[in-house]
UniProtKB/TrEMBL annotation, chain A:
<keyword id="KW-0133">Cell shape</keyword>
<keyword id="KW-0472">Membrane</keyword>
<dbReference type="GO" id="GO:0008360">
    <property type="term" value="P:regulation of cell shape"/>
</dbReference>
<keyword id="KW-1003">Cell membrane</keyword>
<dbReference type="GO" id="GO:0005886">
    <property type="term" value="C:plasma membrane"/>
</dbReference>
<feature type="transmembrane region" description="Helical">
    <location>
        <begin position="75"/>
        <end position="96"/>
    </location>
</feature>
<feature type="transmembrane region" description="Helical">
    <location>
        <begin position="12"/>
        <end position="31"/>
    </location>
</feature>
<keyword id="KW-0812">Transmembrane</keyword>
<feature type="transmembrane region" description="Helical">
    <location>
        <begin position="108"/>
        <end position="130"/>
    </location>
</feature>
<feature type="transmembrane region" description="Helical">
    <location>
        <begin position="142"/>
        <end position="161"/>
    </location>
</feature>
<keyword id="KW-1133">Transmembrane helix</keyword>
<dbReference type="InterPro" id="IPR007227">
    <property type="entry name" value="Cell_shape_determining_MreD"/>
</dbReference>
<protein>
    <submittedName>
        <fullName>Rod shape-determining protein MreD</fullName>
    </submittedName>
</protein>
<comment type="similarity">
    <text>Belongs to the MreD family.</text>
</comment>
<dbReference type="Pfam" id="PF04093">
    <property type="entry name" value="MreD"/>
</dbReference>
<feature type="transmembrane region" description="Helical">
    <location>
        <begin position="38"/>
        <end position="55"/>
    </location>
</feature>
Length: 170, 299
């Protein structure tokens, strides 16, 4: 089957939608909300996005895209370079390797799986940050971030489901 | 579970899996390499950061405006409820401040006269550049914000950033149209300060909590809760005497300082351009020097 230019463009657009959406979410997470004490515990939106797409459509969120998302986050947000990249990559591979477990499970199971993975991701990110800072970093913000991230999963997953249904039917 | 029939995919799956694994290992190696490079904190990393931030700054700027407006409206709504009480309090404070103004004017005149008597070198000219906070980055491990002002607006690395209440942080990276301000609560922040009343020096060291520590005080330092902390001006670019915070805890487990800056309503930051400390510069000299630096001409 030969594709016209427009069909090909359309296909590419569909292919990169999840990655672009994730990059946009990284920026959304950086917008100052001016709410008391929220900034340090703002949910880790990139983690949610990477997990969701790795579970449901890993073909649209390849490891290279995960790398790019992590790099963009680390550079733009000013966090320790490489930490976000590594944690997101490990989350991606953990999910993809357990894909059979996630296949056609109920939402609650997938959410629970996310909580487990997010716990690991936040712990690892805390450890790496402490290691790179050369001192013990306060773990409480990381713990709160873990909670807000798990809490933010359902609404974001709903958003992703809408995107998946409307744009990525193929 | 029923799998759809895809003969071609079944055939290429092992090869693809192997390729995937190899690519994945390469990417993980890349992540570790990035960590090493980032830890070394070279000029390259900084340039990459500023390039990325410069690129996304317009988007963040646009996105942060409506959010700031909504936050403002909400705050105004809350303040409307306490308007009368606030008005009365402000009237009282205004009367008190008028008195202070009189005192300050008298002291300023006296100070100028005495300085003239002593032939004291004048303080360098201080300029301010105001930037809007467009991103509140970092999450759990970094305390920094982005502002929409960069080298194009005359901001340079190392300058002090202030809120209306006091010192907020230091410009850590600066691009053309954006800058990153490392807040004084960040774990990497070290600010030379003095206790205002006793003039004893110390270093204000952030640890990502809301209450940075005051360290390296002299042993005989008299520390008490409520003492004001101001910048000392040692070590370069910060002007002395900028208000930083007040001591809220002084005990066995170290001295903690509550910054005056209100992190929750930090919408604009003023960046202080102090010029070069110790070098006499008139305004014109400063300007021509900056032009020369910008165009690369020898001074």
């Amino acid at each position: 089957m030969k594709l016209t230019v427009w069909q090909r463009l359309d296909l590419i657009a569909r292919q990169i939608t999840p990655t672009l959406l994730t990059l946009a979410l990284v920026m959304v997470g950086m917008v100052p909300l001016h709410l008391p004490d929220l900034a340090p515990v703002v949910p880790w939106l990139a983690l949610i996005a990477v997990y969701y797409w790795s579970v449901h459509r890993p073909d649209l969120m390849p490891a290279a895209a995960v790398f790019a998302v992590g790099l963009f986050h680390d550079l733009a947000a000013g966090t320790a370079l490489g930490v976000g990249v590594l944690v997101l990559l490990l989350v991606h591979v953990a999910v993809v390797s357990q894909r059979r477990f996630f296949m056609s499970r109920s939402f609650m199971v997938i959410w629970f799986g996310f909580a487990v993975i997010a716990l690991g991701a936040c712990t690892l990110s805390w450890l790496l940050n402490a290691l790179l800072a050369g001192t013990l970093v306060d773990a409480r913000p990381a713990a709160f971030q873990f909670m807000t991230t798990v809490a933010a999963y359902p609404p974001l997953a709903w958003l992703f489901v809408q995107v998946q249904r409307s744009m990525l039917r193929t | 579970m029923k799998r759809p029939m895809r003969p071609l995919e079944d055939l290429t799956t092992p090869v693809r899996a192997w390729l995937h694994r190899f690519a994945f290992l390469l990417l993980v190696g890349g992540a570790f390499a990035l960590m090493l490079v980032g830890k070394a904190d070279g000029i390259l990393v900084e340039r990459a950061r500023t390039t990325v931030v410069d690129a996304v700054a317009p988007i963040l700027d646009a996105a942060s405006r409506p959010v700031a407006t909504v936050a403002d409206v909400l705050r105004e709504g809350r303040e409307l409820a306490v308007l009368r009480a606030q008005n009365a309090a402000l009237r009282k404070e205004n009367a008190r401040l008028k008195h202070w103004q009189l005192v300050a004017r008298r002291l300023e005149a006296e100070n100028a006269a005495l300085a003239q008597l002593l032939d004291m070198a004048p303080e360098p000219q201080t300029d301010y550049v105001t930037g809007r906070v467009i991103a509140d980055s970092g999450g759990a491990f970094v305390r920094s914000v982005l502002i929409n002002a960069g080298t194009n607006h005359g901001i340079a690395k190392g300058q002090a950033a202030l809120t209306g209440e006091g010192l907020a942080g230091r410009v850590a990276e600066v691009g053309r149209t954006s800058g990153r301000v490392l807040l004084i609560t960040d774990i990497n922040s070290r600010i030379p300060v003095v206790i205002e009343s006793t003039r004893q020096r110390g270093i204000l060291a952030g640890d990502n909590s809301d209450r940075p520590k005051l360290v390296y005080l002299p042993e005989e330092a008299e520390v008490a809760v409520g003492q004001r902390i101001v910048t000392s001006g040692h070590g370069g670019v910060f002007p002395p005497g900028l208000p930083v915070g007040e001591i809220v805890k002084a005990g066995e487990h170290g001295v903690r300082v509550r910054p005056f800056a209100d992190w929750n309503r930090m919408e604009y930051l003023r960046v202080v351009d102090y010029g070069m400390p110790g070098i006499l510069m008139t305004r014109e000299d400063d300007y021509s020097a900056r032009i020369a630096a910008a165009t690369g001409a020898p001074r």
